[in-house]
């Protein structure tokens, strides 16, 4: 019968009325079995626990009278000994006290959840604001650099080109922040997947990486992959940057097709990491340090998943390999 009641149209605490019916059923059961209260007590505690998880403290205190009546009246009506009747004065305060403790803990958990929800809303608003607001000053910087480039020569021109590349990268990072926020809110990232030569793709992405160590590119000239070029650049820039920063040369970039997957591997020859840490590398804020906040690899995984693939860290002797797999789309299925 309770399932047929439209509780969502009633006040928030309306389901507490079910407790009164529950106490009535327990009292009737105790009377029907001749005053045997052995089964009544546990069910009274269960009713109180249910109420404590869903309703405020004042309802638990209001339950005290009907709960005591449901326990005590059948014992009196069936002429139970005074010792049995007197047990109500011990059992009921204990039941109410346990319920109040459960309610306090549940209230703290609800408060914590609401506080985390507010923090998440603030974080989302801050990320969106930063990602949007950074574009205006960057546009001015880019226009200024483009004007300077027209009259720059030699070393100055190379410096302006480098500044323009980094400005373009910040633009992409702002777009990435917006994309990550969109993933958090909708669970989906729209991709612009196109066929492109893998070697050209890798070389274009490396323009945004300052390379002062040995770098080996192992990509077949005839390999054509279907990926979102901008997202792939984010992936490769993150992985190569980490390999150059935390590993040792040479850093090897391999991109090859294996079965139904295109496999990108970025390997360094450094000390590697312990086995127990590899599974947590791609979590949010997992490996932050003085030079980062631990979001780079999380972004890599999200972008890999958006392509239908996966990201993993594999041990090498020596070093560590970051491996990204992309399933090869069927003909005509490129997004």
Brief characterization of the structure:
This protein is of the alpha+beta class and 335 residues long.
Account of the protein in words:
The chain is of the alpha+beta class. It has three domains: 2-116; 134-186, no CATH class; 193-327, Histidine kinase-like ATPase, C-terminal domain (Heat Shock Protein 90, 2-Layer Sandwich), CATH 3.30.565.10. It is built from eleven helices and seven strands. The protein has helices spanning 17-32, 40-54, 57-77, 82-86, 88-133, 135-151, 154-186, 198-206, 229-246, 275-278, 296-306; strands at 193-197, 215-219, 224-228, 251-258, 261-268, 310-315, 320-327. The strands form two sheets. It has a five-stranded mixed beta sheet, covered by helices on one side. A hairpin with a 4-residue loop joins strand 6 and strand 7. Helix 1 (17-32) runs parallel beside helix 3. The protein is elongated, with a radius of gyration of 32 Å.
Give a topology summary.
Blueprint: H1 17-32, H2 40-54, H3 57-77, H4 82-86, H5 88-133, H6 135-151, H7 154-186, E1 193-197, H8 198-206, E2 215-219, E3 224-228, H9 229-246, E4 251-258, E5 261-268, H10 275-278, H11 296-306, E6 310-315, E7 320-327
Parallel strand pairs: 2-4
Antiparallel strand pairs: 1-3, 4-5, 5-7, 6-7
Subcellular location: Cell membrane
Organism: Paractinoplanes durhamensis
Enzyme class: transferase
